[in-house]
Design a protein that fits this description.
It is a single chain. With 443 residues, the chain is α+β, with helices and mostly antiparallel strands. The protein contains 15 helices and twelve strands. The protein is 44% helix and 9% strand. The two termini are 18 Å apart. It has one domain: Cytochrome P450 (Cytochrome p450). The longest helix is centred in the middle third of the chain and has 32 residues.
Length: 443
C-alpha cells in the first residue's frame, strides 16, 4: 500500500526547537496556547511575542487593531514601547515621509529595540538623506537591468540543476534543499564570495535576525557578537582586497570603490554587508517556500496556474504580498505627529506592519487573506516598502521566483506539502525553517 501523506511526513523529522523568550510574565513559552485576540486587553496587546508568530496566530490581532485601534501604543515590550501602524494607507503615509520619520541607526534603525548597538553601524537602509541615497547609488549597479539580463541564464541553469537533483515521490525539506540553496548561490554571486562557502552567508543572516533563539544562537548575545565579529573580519579582508584590485561589478567591489562607501570603517561596512545579505536571503528564500505552501492551501489557484503559465509574473507579486517576508519596518519620529487623534511623540519608535497592510480589507478589493494569483492589485503590495527606502533588489527577487516557477511547471505535476511548516521564531522575519514536501511528476 502506498504511503499516506501523514506516513511520509513522519519519515522527515521536524527540526527540534526549544525557543524561549527573555523572562517576562506576559510572554508565552514555546507550545503555550495562543489566546484569541478577542480575549486580549487592548491596552497591553504586544505584537512582538514570537510564539504568536511561530504558531501563525497573529492574524486576528492585526484584524482587531485595523478595526479598533489602527494606531496602537504598546507601553511595555522587551523591545521597548512602540506604536503599531496596521492600515495600508497609514503605512504608506509614514513610509514615504522620510522628513518626519527616520530610519537612521542613530535613533535605532529599522528594527524595534536596540540590539545591534555597538557592533553593526549604519547601512544605507538605516540612514537618512543624504547618506542614504549616496550609498544606495553605489550598490544599485549590481542589480541594474543589464546585470539582471546577465544573471538570468545563470539563475535558470542553477534552478534547473537544483530541481533535477531533487527526489521524486520521497519527502524532503523544501526550505533547505531549494529555498536556501538557490538564494545562497545568488548571494555568493552578488558578493563574488566562494560558492563552496555560500552557506556561511545564510548562517550570518540567520544569526543577525535571531539572536534570542537558542536553536540558532544558544550562546545568546555573546555568540551573536562573536559570529558577527567573524563576519566583519572576513568581509573586511575582502573589502580591502577589492579596494586594491580593479573595479568590478560585484557588491564588495562596488562598495570598495564607491565615493560614498570606500572610506567606511569596519562597523559601517558590516552594516551594509548584513543589510545586503538579509535583503538577498530572507525575502526571496521565504517567498520561495511561501509560494509552495500557499498554492497547497489554495489548490484552485494552482489549477489556474497550470492552465495558464502566463500568470506567473503576477503570481510572483501575489506570493510576495501573501507571504510578506519581512513583517515590519521601524521608523523613529523626528517630531510630534498627529494621527488618528493621537500624538506620536518625537523619539517614539513606530512599527509599520507590512504584514497587516498587505491584508487590509479596506484596501484590497478581493479577500486579502487568500492567495489569488491573478489579483489585479498584486503589484501594489507593501512587502518591498515605498519611498526612498524601497528594496533595491526587488527585481532580482522577482526574477528568481519567476524562473523557479517556470522550471517547476516544466518538470513536475505538483509540489505536495505533507505537513504544516515550522515557522521562524521572529516578529521581524516572517519565514519558514522547515517545509516537508513530496514532488509528483505527470502520469
Amino acid at each position: 500500500m502506498a504511503d499516506t501523506a501523514h506516513d511520509l511526513s513522519k519519515k522527515l523529522e521536524r527540526p527540534k526547537l526549544s525557543y524561549r523568550e527573555p523572562a517576562r510574565p506576559h510572554y508565552l513559552e514555546r507550545g503555550d496556547p495562543v489566546p484569541p485576540a478577542s480575549e486580549l486587553d487592548m491596552a497591553t496587546l504586544d505584537l512582538v511575542d514570537v510564539e504568536v508568530w511561530r504558531q501563525d496566530k497573529m492574524w486576528d490581532r492585526f484584524e482587531r487593531l485595523r478595526k479598533e485601534d489602527p494606531l496602537h501604543w504598546t507601553p511595555d515590550s522587551f523591545l521597548g514601547p512602540y506604536w503599531s501602524v496596521t492600515r495600508y494607507k497609514d503605512i504608506m503615509a509614514i513610509d514615504t515621509d522620510h522628513k518626519r520619520f527616520s530610519s537612521d541607526q542613530t535613533y535605532g534603525g529599522i528594527t524595534l529595540g536596540n540590539m545591534q548597538s555597538g557592533l553593526i553601524s549604519r547601512s544605507f537602509i538605516s540612514s537618512d538623506e543624504p547618506i542614504h541615497s549616496a550609498q544606495r547609488k553605489v550598490a544599485q549597479p549590481a542589480v541594474a537591468p543589464t546585470m539582471l539580463r546577465n544573471y538570468e541564464p545563470l539563475i535558470r541553469q542553477r534552478t534547473c540543476d537544483v530541481l533535477d537533483n531533487l527526489p521524486v515521490g520521497e519527502p524532503f525539506d523544501w526550505v533547505d534543499a531549494v529555498s536556501i540553496e538557490l538564494t545562497a548561490m545568488m548571494l555568493a554571486t552578488l558578493f563574488n564570495y566562494p560558492q563552496e562557502k555560500r552557506r556561511e552567508l545564510t548562517r550570518w543572516s540567520d544569526v543577525t535576525t535571531n539572536p534570542r533563539d537558542p536553536d540558532i544562537c544558544p550562546g545568546g548575545m555573546d555568540q551573536w557578537r562573536a559570529e558577527l565579529t567573524e563576519c566583519m573580519q572576513v568581509f573586511w579582508e575582502i573589502f580591502q582586497a577589492r579596494k586594491a584590485a580593479p573595479p568590478a561589478d560585484d557588491l564588495m567591489s562596488l562598495l570598495a570603490h564607491g565615493e560614498a562607501t570606500k572610506d567606511m570603517d569596519q562597523f559601517e561596512m558590516l552594516g551594509n554587508v548584513i543589510l545586503l545579505i538579509i535583503g538577498g536571503n530572507d525575502t526571496t528564500r521565504n517567498s520561495m517556500s511561501g509560494g509552495v505552501y500557499a498554492l497547497n492551501k489554495f489548490p484552485e489557484e494552482f489549477d489556474k496556474l497550470r492552465a495558464d503559465h502566463s500568470l506567473i509574473p503576477n503570481m510572483v507579486s501575489e506570493i510576495i504580498r501573501w507571504q510578506t517576508p519581512l513583517a515590519y519596518m521601524r521608523r523613529t519620529a523626528l517630531e510630534d505627529v498627529e494621527m488618528h487623534g493621537k500624538t506620536i511623540r518625537k523619539g517614539d519608535q513606530i512599527a509599520m506592519w507590512y504584514v497587516s497592510g498587505n491584508r487590509d480589507e479596506d484596501f484590497w478589493n478581493e479577500d486579502p487573506n487568500r492567495l489569488i494569483i491573478d489579483r489585479k492589485q498584486a503589484r501594489n503590495h507593501l512587502s518591498f516598502g515605498f519611498g526612498i527606502h524601497r528594496c533595491v533588489g526587488n527585481r532580482l527577487g522577482e526574477l528568481q521566483l519567476r524562473i523557479l516557477w517556470e522550471e517547476i511547471l516544466a518538470r513536475f505535476d505538483h509540489v505536495e506539502v505533507i505537513d504544516e511548516p515550522s515557522r521562524v521564531s521572529s516578529s521581524f522575519v516572517k519565514g519558514y525553517s522547515w517545509l516537508p514536501v513530496v514532488l509528483h511528476t505527470r502520469t
